[in-house]
Structures are given as structure tokens and as C-alpha cells.
Design goal:
- This protein is of the alpha/beta class and about 240 residues long.
- About 40% of the residues lie in helices and about 20% in strands.
- The strands form three sheets. It has a five-stranded mixed β-sheet, with helices on both faces. A three-stranded antiparallel β-sheet has the order 8-5-9, with helices on both faces. Strands 6-7 form a two-stranded parallel ribbon.
- Helix 1 packs antiparallel against helix 9, helix 2 crosses helix 9 and helix 6 runs parallel beside helix 7.
- The chain is elongated and about 55 Å long.
């Protein structure tokens, strides 16, 4: 996981200015947080920051959803206040004013394919597997196919880069997008059968915190405490 502390710091300062947040204020009201995945080692820093924010008066309740889409829909529907995930497609398509306010991490993703697909042109009309609908891997795929002037065939969704490379080695998946560590594992174990296709130059955001903008304006103190503790934890 690559943490972009400087960029996050700029985002935090911007958030303070835009919302007029007082950093020493106490949070008010319970904040309902929707985690678009199961709690794991990858979310450990986030959980530590939440506990630190709790010590400063942030009353929160976190719910882990089996699918990221469910967490996003819970925020849109008002059942949850803050979501953790990659809501890019929803932000583009939904009329609900959802906004990202903190970037948790960035990952570098790599398109990988069976050797029978030498180039992106060979994948024109062919099946392709992504992490989940509307997530970063699908956004990357859409950017690439537009760049290459092709269309993909049937889209399948298998959460977890580690699960997708297992599917590739078993012959169940021929082309997908995975993170750096799993790309390296795939190449080390089956580099004679698979190769890396040209991707995009800018890394994609893996996880962000997002909320409805009206709620954000009404809960400035809660957001200030959470963001400050996230920054402190990441720096530590």
C-alpha cells in the first residue's frame, strides 16, 4: 500500500478551508460508517485512527458490508453517513451529491492476460474480469478500451486480486487487472503463460472516504476529528 501523505495533507487543508472546520471542536452525534469490505490487515490503520478519534469524542458505529456496492448504496440511501470504498461510477451517474473527502491509499494496477492475447486489440470483444462493478479496476479498464478503440465482451467480477490470479492459473480467467504484488506473484509462478499489457500512467485510488455533501456540512467537527486522526496515524 502506497500512502500519499503530502497529497493527503493538501486535501485536508482544503477541507478545513472549504468547510470552515475548527480542529479543537468536539464531534456531536453518532457517525455511521459503511465499510465496503471485511475488516482486514489492509484496514488496520483506518481502525486505529477510528479508535483515536473515539478518544477525542467521535461517537461512531461501523458496519462491514459483504459487497462494496451495498456500502455505497447505504450512504446514498441515508442509512449510513460515511462510506469506505471506490464510488467513482456512482458519483458520475447518481444525482445524489456524494463527495470524496479523504484518500486512504493508492495502488498501482496492472492489466494481465494470457499469452494468446498479445495486445489489447486481441481482446476486442473478448471476456474480461474486474474486481467489482464501478470500482477502480473497471474504471481503469474503461479508460484503456477507449484509448485502444476496442470493446470488451462479457464482463465478470471476482473480488480480490489474489483470487483473480488463482483463477488465471487455473484457466478460469484469461484477462484481468491486478495490483502490484499479485502481478509479481503471477509472473513468478506462471510468467511463461501470462504477460502484462500496457496500462495507464497515473495510479488509481484504491480506497477513499466519501459522504453526502449536506451531511458533511452539518457534521464539520466529526469530519475534522476523523481526518486529523487519519493523518496522524498515517504519519506515525
Amino acid at each position: 500500500m502506497i500512502v500519499l501523505t503530502k497529497r493527503i495533507s493538501v486535501l485536508f487543508v482544503t477541507l478545513v478551508v472549504v468547510l470552515g472546520i475548527g480542529l479543537n471542536a468536539q464531534a456531536a452525534g453518532k457517525v455511521r460508517i459503511a465499510l465496503g469490505d471485511v475488516a482486514s490487515v489492509e484496514t488496520l490503520c483506518f481502525l486505529v485512527a477510528l479508535d483515536r478519534a473515539k478518544d477525542r469524542g467521535l461517537d461512531y458505529e461501523m458496519t462491514a458490508f459483504a459487497k462494496e456496492q451495498l456500502a455505497i448504496q447505504a450512504v446514498i440511501g441515508g442509512q449510513m453517513d460515511i462510506g469506505v470504498g471506490t464510488p467513482y461510477s456512482i458519483i458520475q451517474k447518481s444525482k445524489v451529491p456524494i463527495r470524496n473527502f479523504f484518500q486512504l491509499s493508492k495502488l498501482v494496477f496492472f492489466p494481465v492476460a494470457s499469452n494468446k492475447y498479445k495486445t489489447w486489440q486481441d481482446l476486442d470483444g473478448q471476456p474480461f474480469t474486474f474486481h467489482a462493478r464501478g470500482t477502480g479496476t473497471e474504471a481503469i479498464g474503461d479508460i484503456i478500451i477507449k484509448r485502444e478503440g476496442i470493446t470488451l465482451g462479457q464482463r465478470s467480477y471476482v473480488p480480490g486480486s489474489e483470487n483473480r490470479i488463482v483463477g488465471m492459473m487455473k484457466g478460469q480467467i484469461n484477462a484481468t487487472i491486478v495490483d502490484l504484488s499479485n502481478k509479481n506473484i503471477l509472473m513468478a509462478k506462471a510468467g511463461d503463460r501470462f504477460h502484462v499489457l500496457p496500462g495507464i500512467t497515473d495510479p488509481a485510488s484504491d480506497e477513499v472516504l466519501f459522504a453526502e455533501i449536506g451531511w458533511m456540512k452539518e457534521n464539520k467537527e466529526s469530519i475534522a476529528i476523523l481526518v486529523e486522526e487519519l493523518l496522524r496515524t498515517w504519519r506515525d
